[in-house]
Design a protein that fits this description.
Chains A, B: It is found in: Cytoplasm. Two copies of one chain form a homodimer. Chain A is an alpha+beta fold. Chain A has four helices and 13 strands. Chain B binds a DNA duplex through strand 4 and helix 3.
Chain lengths: 226, 226
DNA sequence: AGTTTAATATCGAAC
DNA sequence: GTTCGATGTTAAACT
């Protein structure tokens, strides 16, 4: 039944006591225990234990799944190339095998992302500071694309780095790279301001901002009356 | 049956046609489709479609799950506080409901991690460069802990930043922060070398290394005869 | 196929 | 509890 249903159209689940071996980018071994194996029609494989949101082992979409019987026990093997990766699940006991004809056309509608934060700023630039004028989004520099590029009321160049949630030192590093790249590329004597826009910052990130002469503006992706 | 089995000891799966609403750190809405709902004993909730490794919607461990019947349809609600987040799954049809008494004591044994790379270097420092002497791991600086701290054959301070796989500009930014922090804190005139140790680097990362006067050494977490 | 960055990232450890 | 960095991160956009 399983072999027939690994046809790229069926969602398969197997529940039972098994061991799991993985070899690829890393390598792992998992002793016997009760787990849920999910084989998706797109070639994804997931091994879930009783704990955690992440599967304990997995294969990404695009893999090929095979089943076999060894000493009366079910074996499932999933593999891919580039990079070469292999997952082997050996069941001692199987409590349940299911195959579902799945139909799902709907796309997820998600809000509260960095893109929403950008749109909020473009709709009302005064949220950043009075007189701020956005000139471009995703403006290219040698250090990568700047989220929002614009001018303040005095005509000084302003670079915004947007984050949808509280930020640590990594985001400051990103902003530093953009500001330094623009200073080199615009080769102007005029000041370039770098502003991190996020709901809040950690202490270490705030220190780094001070050391680098950068600024912070508190803003969330969602309107306060949400 | 479901209410009785949401007892913190049972793994529950529900398969059927449903809609999903999420509100919390972000917010999302998903129209009707066939999906697999997994409720773990640790309070995790997963909604899986036919595609992708990641669930289309989820709740992290520690949430409380509730079930109810509305107009003859099964509803599942999962919520948590700090941050306040809620997931609602409304089933039109239910093809299967399962409850499994799960027993799993085994821990995953994973190799090929950054920790393995560190151990490789401590076992044979010459892999980094002839004469390199590691003095400390996780050495604290104001910018965070340095992976490996040591001296080269001439006695110059060397900072290693380790990555288990090919690295981009972000890792260079991290190394820059550590080297700058040490230059301030050691307030010495002597040179401090920063070395990125990883299997490979992207072009942009290599440029950044050059601009910052940092170095790169190619090394993987696993021995070449693996 | 490779690069870059966002993410409801997740997860674990240190504080 | 918050902060910080690794992750077999995943996933999407772009080259």
């Amino acid at each position: 039944m399983l072999e027939r249903r690994l046809d790229g159209e069926t969602l398969v689940t197997v529940y039972g006591r098994c061991t799991v071996e993985y070899d690829g980018r890393a390598a792992s071994s998992l002793g016997p225990g009760d787990r849920l194996l999910v084989l998706k029609p797109d070639g994804t494989a997931l091994v879930h234990t009783t704990e955690n949101q992440k599967p304990v082992n997995w294969q990404p979409p695009g893999c090929t799944h095979e089943v076999s019987l060894v000493d009366g026990g079910l074996r499932v093997r999933s593999e891919r190339s580039t990079p070469a990766e292999e997952l082997r699940v050996a069941f001692e006991t199987v409590e349940q095998v299911s195959a579902f004809d799945a139909r799902d056309e709907e796309d997820l509608a998600l809000t509260g992302t960095e893109e929403d934060l950008r749109q909020r700023i473009l709709d009302d630039p005064d949220l950043v500071e009075s007189g701020f004028r956005p000139l471009a989004t995703e403006r290219e520099t040698s250090a990568g694309a700047v989220d929002v590029y614009g001018e303040d009321r005095e005509g000084r160049t302003v670079v915004l780095e947007l984050k949808r949630r509280r930020v640590g030192p990594d985001a400051v590093g990103q902003l530093v790279r953009y500001v330094e790249a623009l200073r080199r590329e615009l080769h102007t004597d005029a000041e370039i301001r770098g502003v991190l826009v996020a709901p809040s910052v950690t202490d270490r990130a705030r220190e780094l901002l001070g050391e680098e002469g950068l600024e912070f503006v508190s803003l969330t992706p969602r309107a306060s009356d949400d």
